[in-house]
Specification:
Number of domains: 1
Order of helices and strands: EEHHEHEHHHEE
Number of helices: 6
Radius of gyration: 19 Å
Number of strands: 6
Shape: globular
CATH superfamily: Glutaredoxin
Strand order of the largest sheet: 4-3-5-6
CATH class: Alpha Beta
Distance between the termini: 39 Å
CATH topology: Glutaredoxin
Amino acid sequence: MSVPGSAIIAQSHSHSDRPIRSNLANPALFGCARIGQENMMSDKIKVYQKPTCSKCRTTIGILKDRGADFEAINYYEKPLSVADLRKLIDKLGIAPRDLLRTGEQVYRDLKLAKVELSDEELIQLMVDNPDLIQRPIVVRGNKAVLGRPPENVDDLL
């Protein structure tokens, strides 16, 4: 359904998949203050990390030194879903295999260097075995970087 004087500004990703509309002719009706807050929220930095990881601690230290507002998420305590990990991989712009920690014992045990698996199978393995996931993953909005080296986080600041 079209609303006179409005334009689609974004596609909703909710269950209804309704487009988000804006009355561009009247910013007061548009709710600019609320939109600004939503944009700030989506730009908040999230660090998917393991607290005992030295690269994670160094990356978090850099963010603190830069005065960045961020949320640290221990993905061992709050496991990633398949959908969440797929979104992170998309934001990183890499293939799932490129996110694997090849030096981990579980990588060798599963013989992942010798096995051909689909992207979905690799993602499921990483969700089931979080030691396989490179870390930290630092996200801001629609972009993400691996904190290897930790200074990569500067690309998001």
